[in-house]
Amino acid sequence: MKRILLIFLCTIGLSVNAQTTLTLKDAVNYALQNKADAKKAKLQVENSEYQIQEIRSRALPQISANGSLTYNPVIQTTVIDGAGFGQPGTTIQAAFGQKWTSTAGLSLTQALFDQSVFTGLRAAKTTREFYQINDQLTEEQVIERVANNYYSVYVQKERLILLDSNYVNTEKVRDIVQGQFNNGLAKKIDLDRIIVKMSNIDTDRQQVKNQIELQENALKFYMGMPIETQIVMPKEEFEVVPAALTQEPNIENRTEYLLLKKQEELLVFNKKAVEAGYYPTLSLSAGYNYIGQGPEMPWFAKPEKGVYWSDFSAIALNLHVPIFTGFGTRAKVRQADVQIRELQEDIKDTKLSLDLDYRNAMAQINNNLVTIENQRENMRLALEILGNTKNNYLQGLASLTDLLDAENASLEAQNNFTRAVLNYKIAEISLIKSKGELKSLTK
Q: Which top-level group of life is the source organism from (predicted)?
């Protein structure tokens, strides 16, 4: 399949002006490879891995280097009791420190117990699965749009074929009436009526051509295909094959439902992360530093100039126990709980909606099958009436009005049949979607 698609893409790349045969299968596969929506969904899956790595980093040691250089133009003085220096009853004002101070060192922090970190790690797998399901849903949405637009374009092209055929037939009638008029066997008003009808048909043709161009452009946009590409649609793609009416699908296997359930899992984890605010946290911190002090800038200075360097280090165990947060944590927990309950209502509503989609699609399939058979018979009868009326007109047994009415009825019957097939095809896409089988259109 990939090889066929690659050849198809290369063909487009070599000559955008050449016509390309485009089946529905080709169209949806091309869209999945090129449409921005599908690409962005895959990027979100990739980005979810980086989000997971960010969460995991909170459980790993945090190591950093630090350094500083400080100049004190005026050193703060401290007032102390002179008794400590053998001068009882006096007060000494002393300055502690040096004009220049520089430090450099390493620090390490390691979380030992943090409930929010543990909850985030447990939610990592669910986060990945959420974006994977979202990618699948995006692909299904792309397939549905492409399929519906594909059939809409095909119907407009079928309408144009019918109008072209009707124009040619009317042109033949005009030639007959022209000959009769030249021989004095027809009135000028009859010839004018034929000419007006041809003009109306030609106007309809121009309108349909414009609709074809607009809908083709929309189809190419939904596919991510260059607008200038010329496409041809095989007639076989529009054949009506009664859909396989299987048992009622399991709504809980639908992508839309699965995505909401994953979102519910994430909201539950979010609530647990907020509840972690009730738990104490325990962490380990350590640092090792060098400090240089003196009357000159310590860098590269020696003790002879009064600059001295020394090292110091510290290891600490940090415990934080929340006692009262002004009910802020409780409010956040309740907000998270409301979000879960809101989503649960959405899940119930979505189940009803998906079930409705399936039942409506089934009803439309059955109704459209009946309509197609009725319109097929109407089309056959209209063509038969048109043929008989044309023969009667040539033999002088029918009026021009009868002939024009028969042509209009035949064209309307054919258009009604084409619309019925389109409605069936769109209902077929809805049924395939309601069964969660849109990806089958790519095979």
A: Bacteria
Q: Give me the half-sphere count of Cα atoms (radius 13 Å) on the Cβ side of residue 168.
A: 5
- Is the pLDDT at 423 greater than 70? The verdict is yes
DSSP secondary structure string for all residues of 287-354: EEEEEEEESS--TT--GGGT-EEEEEEEEEEEEE-----TTHHHHHHHHHHHHHHHHHHHHHHHHHHH
Query: Cα–Cα distances in Å, from 166 out to 62, 390, 408, 415, 422?
Result: 79, 13, 9, 12, 21
- 44-101 confidence digits (pLDDT tens): 999 999 988 998 898 899 999 999 999 999 888 888 887 777 778 788 888 888 899 9
Model confidence pTM above 0.70 = yes
Identity at 92, one-letter amino acid code = I
Residue 286: phi and psi, rounded to 5, are: -150, 150
* Residue at 263 is within a domain: no
Residue range(s) defining the domain that contains residue 365: 244-251+327-437
Residue 121 tokens, joined: 């790690």
Residue 81 pairs in a beta bridge with 91
Sorting pLDDT into bands at 50, 70 and 90, what band is 338? Answer: very high
Read off the pLDDT of each residue in 209-237 and give the average, rounded to a whole number. Answer: 91
CATH number at residue 355: 1.20.120
Question: Domain tally for the chain?
Answer: 2
Q: Please identify which residue in the block is written with the tokens 């769109």.
A: 426
Nearest-angstrom CA–CA distance, 413 and 381? 9
Does 443 map to a domain?
A: no
Based on the domain organization, do 314 and 337 belong to the same domain? Answer: no
Q: What is the CATH number of the domain that holds 155?
A: 1.20.1600.10
